[in-house]
Write a structure and sequence with these properties.
This protein has no helices and seven strands. It is mainly β.
Amino acid sequence: MFFQESEPKAYPVVPVEAIGMIGRQQKHLEFGLGYTKRFTDEPDLLQNLYFARLGFRYQQPDGGLLIRVALTPFISPENKSEASGFALVPRFGLSIGRSF
């Protein structure tokens, strides 16, 4: 489920992403492409979002600390603003966790 205070209600979201990595040992360049479907009937909200990922991943090969930093912009053909063309929403991500 996804909810923001400025939106009228919570609605289900289904993201799908293919991710690849280039690198050895602990440091990797991470890249990916994905699609997110928002299940809402609100006419002002984007329902189909495509996104890309370009980032850095630090991960111990045998498990342990995992840190990811990435640029993850959303692009949608359903531009709901007054500007013409695709809607582009810049996003950044940070993940800290444990791999196993």
